[in-house]
Amino acid sequence: MSTKLYVGSLPYSTNEQQLSELFAQYGTVQSAKVITDRYTGQSRGFGFVEMATGEEAQKAIAALNGSSMGGRTLVVNEARPQEKRAYGGGGGGGDRDRW
Predict the structure, then answer these.
(1) Close Cβ partners of 36 (under 8 Å, ≥ 6 residues apart)
(2) Among 21, 70, 79, 87, which has the minimal tally of Cβ within 10 Å of its Cβ?
(3) Tell me, what DSSP letter sits at residue 64?
(4) What is the C-alpha to C-alpha distance for residues 41 and 18, in angstroms, rounded to an integer?
(5) Residues 7, 75: contact at Cβ < 8 Å?
(6) Using DSSP, how many helices (H) and how many strands (E) does the chain show?
(7) 46-66, pLDDT tens digit by residue?
(8) For residue 99, is it within any domain?
């Protein structure tokens, strides 16, 4: 069963190919995704890598967590399930009837 990893403190210049190659040293990478800003398209400095097995994921965590990439110290751990977000957003209170 595959294991999804969170990778934080990535250099902003990192692309998905580089991320995949970095983790491929420790096993089969099923996917690698650098998270980008929705509006600017620039990297947000973190991403996710899905390794083929839990054993390979643990090897990658042990080797890469705390290591340096592009002058930044990587944070690598198992990804937590995404939290449900409330729909809507934006600022301001809910008292819209006043307008």
Answers:
(1) 42, 43, 44
(2) 87
(3) H
(4) 17
(5) yes
(6) 2, 6
(7) 999 999 999 999 999 999 999
(8) no
Number of neighbours of residue 79 by Cβ within 10 angstroms: 14
Looking up residue 44, the CATH number of its domain turns out to be 3.30.70.330
Q: CA–CA distance from 69 to each of 12, 19, 38, 39 (Å)?
A: 11, 10, 24, 26
Q: Range of 48's domain?
A: 3-52+60-67
Domain assignment present for residue 91? The answer is no
Q: What is the pLDDT of residue 98?
A: 47
| Angle 93-81-75 from CA coordinates, rounded to 5° | 100
Question: Residue 8's pLDDT is what?
Answer: 98
Query: Mean per-residue pLDDT for 35-48?
Result: 97
Note the pTM of the prediction, 2 decimals. Answer: 0.83
